[in-house]
Amino acid sequence: MTAPVSPVRESARHALARCRELVRPELRAAVGRLHPWVAEMAAYSFGWCEVGGAPAGAPGGKGVRQALAVLGAEAAGADGRAGVPAAVAVELVHAFSLLHDDIMDGDASRRGRPAVWQAYGTGPAVLAGDALFALAVDTVAAATETPGAVRLLSAALADLVRGQADDLLFTTRPWTGPERVTAREYQVMAEGKTGALLGCAAALGATLGGAPRDTALVLDRAGRHLGIAFQLVDDVLGLWGDPAVTGKSVGGDLREGKKTFPVLAALGSPAARHLPALLGSPERAEEAAALIEAAGGRTAALAEARAHTAAARELLAAAPLAAGPVEELTGLLDLLVGRAL
Predict the structure, then answer these.
(1) d(Cα 84, Cα 208) in Å, to the nearest integer?
(2) Rounded to an integer, what distance in angstroms lies between the CA atom of residue 46 and that of residue 30?
(3) Distance of alpha carbon 123 from alpha carbon 126, whole angstroms
(4) Is 82 in contact with 209 (CB distance < 8 Å)?
(5) Which residues, including other chains, have CB under 8 Å from residue 218's CB and lie 6 or more apart?
């Protein structure tokens, strides 16, 4: 029997749908300004078309970042439409990062279809990502003369690149010894790779909605906490989630040797003394996952996710923001992080 959906999460789903409807026409219009071939690749990445340009209804992302931008503007007391350029910009940056991530990670598929680099080639996919990046900056610059808006986006981009660089370098470091990746280093990486753009979305939307700098920075910090919590939960689901729900194979991260938080936390326990040997054997991923759980890796990851969720809630509750949008932002926290809690 399916468990009932809480009213808070149901409200968050409605908020996601409402914001997608508000942003979609402007996002399509922005992509339409690109070179036709590049625009086709971008449209393919969003699930709007097939290779060659035929219309498609492939599943896209949840639209979390664009929702944060619209709700950020509304939390600042403005009409949600004020945050639409911010929503378009962060969605373009997110798409750019996914195009390049798939190439760097060698991931052949994205959301059940061939990744752009598989469908069009590596060079064209890099070009499309670059075009989306440039379009995102232009979208913000055209929306406001406030220099702080462009600086918010550029700072998030710098943090995103820094986080991605750390994530790539982590794969070359050992599981144990003085050169091992620490749990703290992992959280810093997750803040950059995932949290920076979530924080930027809310802060940029608020900025375009007329919020003072201090208020925008509070939303940025809350979004960064959400990003870390989201990544921690994603790590847990990658090890113990239902593939039918997550779209990931259980233990896939282990087989690829990725440094995820549950593994790093478990390695600090005496109960995990045999874990390093298992991590070097992809065929023993299920055995490794069981040992990680027994050594407290799952519990530690979820505890950290709860701590970051609580920190985001406290920031939102203390800021001078409109109550209704804050409730929807809090609902998004529950919806995104509550997947494994």
Answers:
(1) 9
(2) 13
(3) 5
(4) yes
(5) 315, 316, 318, 319
Q: For the segment 84-141, what is each residue's pLDDT rounded down to a tens digit?
A: 999 999 999 999 999 999 999 898 999 889 999 999 999 999 999 999 999 999 999 9
Tens digit of each residue's pLDDT (9 = 90 or more) over 295-337: 999 999 999 999 999 999 999 999 999 999 999 999 999 888 8
Length of the chain: 341
**b/e code 70-86 from CB counts within 10 Å (16+ = b):** bbbbbbbbbebbbbbbb
What letter would DSSP give residue 80? G
Q: Nearest 5°: CA angle at 326, between 213 and 92?
A: 65
Measure Cα distances from 78 to 16, 68, 208, 244, 312 in Å. Answer: 18, 14, 9, 39, 22
Neighbours of 266 (CB within 10 A): 24
Beta-carbon contacts of residue 85 (< 8 Å; ≥ 6 apart): 26, 139, 140, 142, 143, 144, 208
Report the amino acid identity of residue 329: L
Type and span of the H or E element at 109: strand 109-110
d(Cα 268, Cα 251) in Å, to the nearest integer?
A: 20
